[in-house]
Automatic annotation (TrEMBL):
It comes from the Bacteria. Keywords: Coiled coil, Flavoprotein, FMN, NADP, Oxidoreductase. Residues 190-217 form a coiled coil. Signal peptide: none annotated. One of its GO terms (molecular function) is oxidoreductase activity. This is Nitroreductase. It holds the Pfam family Nitroreductase. It comes from Thermophagus xiamenensis. The lineage of its organism: Bacteria, Pseudomonadati, Bacteroidota, Bacteroidia, Marinilabiliales. Residues 7-160 form the Nitroreductase domain. Belongs to the flavin oxidoreductase frp family.
């Protein structure tokens, strides 16, 4: 299993080949064995295979080909709706209309998502996390008919790989692991830890194509801008209010 994890790469092109029901159910079963807050299983998974549903959802994922061309997409949701109903039907009054409860449910859902992804890769399937879910959660809620108490937090596409891309780089272990207490980064640390990343030809090309001076500027000025982050933050906060997790 360690080899599966160490060989992970994102797959965005899939063969026109279905993922069978038995296999998918096996992956989902592996998913729900993930750790969960208080064994409450505060999540739901919506499976999308139907071309018409994919067509409806595609704009919420910025019409990325990886979404439209994947045989299966899975939307993982933080879900207190089911647990709240169980509580009320058993003479217990739930008090989960708050941000702490959303965080617990979101963590539950993301742990399940990663379990499914690792299980899928162990079977030779490819996966891709889509970062668009929290940007357009309001639209996804409408299309998937998610009730109050349910918020989408991740979408994963799944299929048989039709490409074998190189692995994307990662920072060295010393960049992210701290022993006993947090070691803050000096300017020299930052230079050393990001040196390999910045010197990769693919990243140099990325900088040139975007007419920027540094790779960091590509992130701050092009890919993940302050303006966009603030806009989508407002959208998602409204979602949390509408779905009953914030007042």
């Amino acid at each position: 299993m360690t080899d599966v994890l160490l060989n992970h790469r994102t797959i965005r092109k899939y063969k026109n080949q279905p993922v069978g029901d038995d296999l998918l159910n096996e992956l989902l079963q592996a998913g729900i064995r993930a750790s969960t807050t208080g064994n409450m299983q505060l999540y739901s998974i919506v499976v999308t295979r139907d071309p018409q549903m994919k067509e409806k959802l595609a704009p919420a994922h910025f019409n990325q080909p990886v979404f439209s061309n994947a045989p299966v997409s899975l939307t993982f949701c933080a879900d207190f709706n089911r647990f709240n109903k169980w509580c009320r039907q058993r003479k217990a009054e739930p008090g989960y209309d708050n941000f702490q409860s959303f965080v617990a449910a979101a963590i539950d859902a993301l742990l399940v998502a990663q379990n499914v992804c690792v299980a899928a890769e162990s079977k030779g399937l490819g996966i891709c996390y889509l970062g668009t879910v929290t940007y357009n959660a309001d639209k996804i809620i409408d299309i998937l008919k998610l009730p109050k108490g349910v918020v989408p937090v991740a979408t994963v596409t799944l299929g048989w790989p039709d490409e074998n891309p190189p692995q994307t780089e990662r920072l060295p272990l010393e960049a992210v692991v701290h022993q006993e207490t947090y070691h803050d980064y000096s300017p020299e640390d930052i230079d050393r830890l990001y040196k390999e990343k910045e010197e990769l030809e693919v990243n140099k090309q990325f900088v040139a194509e975007n007419n920027k001076e540094t790779l960091a500027q590509v992130f701050t000025d092009v890919r993940y801008t302050k303006e966009n982050n603030e806009h989508f933050s407002r959208v998602f906060l409204d979602v949390l209010k509408n779905q009953g997790f914030l007042e």
